[in-house]
Design brief:
By secondary structure, the protein is mainly β. It contains no helices and 15 strands. Strand 3 and strand 4 form a beta hairpin. The model has no long low-confidence stretch (mean pLDDT 82). InterPro entries: WD40/YVTN_repeat-like_dom_sf, WD40_repeat_dom_sf, WD40_rpt, WD_repeat_protein.
Length: 205
């Protein structure tokens, strides 16, 4: 899909609050700004786009020479992007970037790539999702080997442990096809949204 749909979390009629059609190819990632006033999106049209949610207008376009797979606002200052200039570029030659995450102090960021041998630990599996702990200096990496690796987010970024199983609190059957993303509501921790390969989006309370 080359459009972005905004939904009202509590809507029972399943009507879209707004549909944004600015990308010319499939959208790969979308992020809300900290205040919830803007969306930052990226995709297969080799661009990132900043959109004013209230007006639905595109305010900035950032063109690249390749597909943009993942995008993030700076956690402490989402207005940094308004400058519209490249500050730094980082090249490792490790294939497409699968995910990117800022550390809790927002002074560093972590990325995972499609080539596992160049990551900070030697594994046969790539890590499509990484997340920083909200309070402690750790981050987790979800491996395609069906386990979670826990790392220190301070140099030398040592592996803490693998987590292959734990106590299951609750299991929710939501889709027939694979669930591809899950996110907590930014202010209500008891509300979770998820989506699947089938194109369905579900909200759980």
């Amino acid at each position: 899909m080359d459009h972005i749909c905004i939904w009202n979390v509590w809507s029972r009629d399943q009507e879209k609050a707004r549909v944004l059609n600015y990308h010319n190819a499939a959208v790969k990632d979308v992020q809300w700004s900290l205040q919830g006033l803007f969306l930052l999106s990226c995709g297969y049209d080799c661009s990132s786009r900043l959109i004013d949610v209230e007006t639905g207008l595109e305010t900035q376009v950032f063109k690249e020479d390749q597909v943009v797979g993942v995008i993030k606002f700076h956690p402490n200052n989402s207005n940094l992007i308004r400058v519209g200039k490249v500050v730094n570029e980082y090249f490792r030659g490790l294939g497409p970037i699968l995910d990117i995450e800022f550390t809790i102090d927002a002074k560093q960021f972590i990325s995972s790539s499609d080539v596992s041998k160049g990551n900070i630990y030697m594994e046969a599996y790539t890590c499509p999702c990484i997340r920083s702990h909200q309070r402690d200096s750790y981050f987790v990496a979800q491996s395609n080997g069906n386990y979670i690796a826990i790392f220190s987010s301070r140099p030398p970024f040592k592996l803490n442990k693998y987590k292959r199983s734990t106590d299951l609190i609750k299991k929710i059957k939501a889709y027939e096809q694979a669930c591809i993303d899950v996110g907590f509501h930014p202010t209500m921790s008891n509300v979770v949204a998820s989506c699947s390969w089938s194109g369905d989006v579900s909200v759980f309370e």
